[in-house]
Amino acid sequence: MAERKKIGIGMLGAGWMGRAHTNAYITARYMFWPTSNWEPELVVIGSSTEEKGKLAAQRFGYQQGVGGYEAIINNPRVDVFDNVTPDRIHVEPSIAAAKAGKHVICEKPLAVGARDAKRMLDAVNEAKVKHLCCFNYRFFPAVQLAYDLIQDGVLGKIYHFSGNYYQDHGSDENTPAEDIWYIGWSGVAQGITSHLIDMSRFLIGEVESVHGMVRTYNKVRNSKNGPIDVTADEGFFSMVEFANGVTGVYQSLGVANGRRSRFSFEIYGSKGSLAWNVEEPNFLDIYLSESADPRVLGFTRVCATEPNHPFMNVWWPPGHTLGWEHGHINMIAHFLDCVANDKPVAPRAATFEDGYKVAVIIDTINESSKQGKKLAVQY
Ligand SMILES: NC(=O)c1ccc[n+]([C@@H]2O[C@H](COP(=O)([O-])OP(=O)(O)OC[C@H]3O[C@@H](n4cnc5c(N)ncnc54)[C@H](O)[C@@H]3O)[C@@H](O)[C@H]2O)c1
Question: Does position 29 have pLDDT exceeding 80, yes or no?
Answer without folding.
Answer: yes
